[in-house]
Amino acid sequence: MNKFVFVDRDGVINEYPGDGNYVVKKEDFHIIPGAAAAIAKLKSAGFKIFVISNQACVSKGLIKKEDLMNMTAAFLSYFDQQKAFIDGVYYCIHTQEEACSFRKPSPKMVFEIYRQNNIKPQENKILSYFIGDSIIDIKTARAAGCRSVLVLSGREKKEREPYWEEKPDYISDSLLTAADLIIDSNTKDV
């Protein structure tokens, strides 16, 4: 069984910067308490972990791609020190207006990860989850055939549930509680 967890970044791993805002400086990248522990738990349970995030701030000229990669290297280094190993980070740096085929809610980043890991969804058994803080992430999960977990540590709030265009499979307070939920669910599925 191939086990994957795809994780959005802002609002899930690091503090949500607010609607319309971006994290464009290392000093503004604040990791949510428990995020590294969540990744470590999922890795221990046998999941491959990939971060998938839209970062249009690059196309908007708010941050250079090189600086985004440096910020990413810094948080990955911190996670590595915590024994919370992430297998890869994938960004779409384009705006919605640029109509990039990899921009979430498109599932293409998920499919690219499968391809790079020699996984063929139609042939290989896959257990996959997508953890995000927005309905865009839930739509991505659906389109990619993943189970979806909406965390309430970022953009979406529980009181907006009646307005959600797509309903998640699970709702959790944070990445840490989502990890526990996935591990518990995975144990029951086996």
Can you summarize this structure?
With 190 residues, the protein is of the alpha/beta class. It contains five helices and six strands, in the order E-H-E-H-E-H-E-H-E-E-H.
Discrete helix count: 5
Largest sheet: 6 strands, parallel
- The coarse overall form would be globular
Q: How would you spell out the order of helices and strands?
A: EHEHEHEHEEH
Q: What radius of gyration results from the CA coordinates?
A: 16 Å
Q: What percent strand? A: 15-25%
Work out the count of structural domains.
Answer: 1
Description:
The protein is of the alpha/beta class and 190 residues long. It has one domain (2-189): Rossmann fold (3-Layer(aba) Sandwich). Helix content is 32%, strand content 17%. It is built from 5 helices and 6 strands, in the order βαβαβαβαββα. The protein has helices spanning 35-44, 65-81, 108-116, 135-144, 175-189; strands at residues 2-7, 48-54, 88-92, 126-132, 147-151, 170-172. α1 (35-44) runs parallel beside α5. The longest helix has 17 residues, at 65-81. It is globular.
From the structure above, extract its key features.
about 190 residues, alpha/beta, Rossmann fold, 6-stranded parallel sheet, 6 strands, about 30% helix, about 15% strand
Topology (SSEs and partners):
Layout: E1 2-7, H1 35-44, E2 48-54, H2 65-81, E3 88-92, H3 108-116, E4 126-132, H4 135-144, E5 147-151, E6 170-172, H5 175-189
Helix pairs in contact: 1-5
